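Q&A log
Question type: sequence-to-structure
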Amino acid sequence: MRFYFNCSEGVETNLHVYEEGHPEIELNLLFRDYLRSHQEAREEYASLKENLLKDEASYEKRGSAFTGYNLGKDAFIRKILKSANFDRIRIMKCTHYAEWDFAKKLRQKYFFDPLSMADPYTWTFDHQEHAHLILYQGVDMIGYAHIQFWPNQRAAFRIFVVDEPYRHQGLGSQFLQLCERWLKRQGIQSIHDEARPDAISFYRKNGYIDMPFDDPSGEPPSPHDIAVGKKL
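Response status: OK
Response body:
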């Protein structure tokens, strides 16, 4: 089952079938039930779709994997889900332009602005060895992870961050667990990171131990960070 009206590609679409209680199922059902019980919203949605179908731009791809028709419905769907109090935690692959904008914002704010430099790794946004994931709370984007796939069923966090207003609520641990679960389903057997000293307690709490980073590119280890990892 897929959230067919959202402008995001589900991280777990490779599973084909969602387990019972999956947030994507709840999301679909909430949207359906809200429209069933709110005639005004139902008519607004019908009118929106009719207008989009009359617009030639609705049939064009606009800077993402989706047509203008899908993108044109996104704001309305998010509004309805907020009204329906959808607040589940979930992760999604970056595909929608708003998700890429959010990823770029967090990358620059937390990692490259402190170094007074522009992000030199935007080329990874379209590279098969790299995955970019967004953490959602309801319809709000609150976290971001950049994962690189390595040979021998290994992967590494290149960036893992929860936006500052959402920290100290246990959301980082939930995000980490969701990423690990997804990676395991991709056949990854170990996940690695070079953790900043101020983040090492977070990784320890989540079962990460001292483990060589062993970057297959041959890049030397960071002299300031601590190499940790976890068997999946």
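Response note: Residues 79 and 217 are 44 Å apart (CA to CA).
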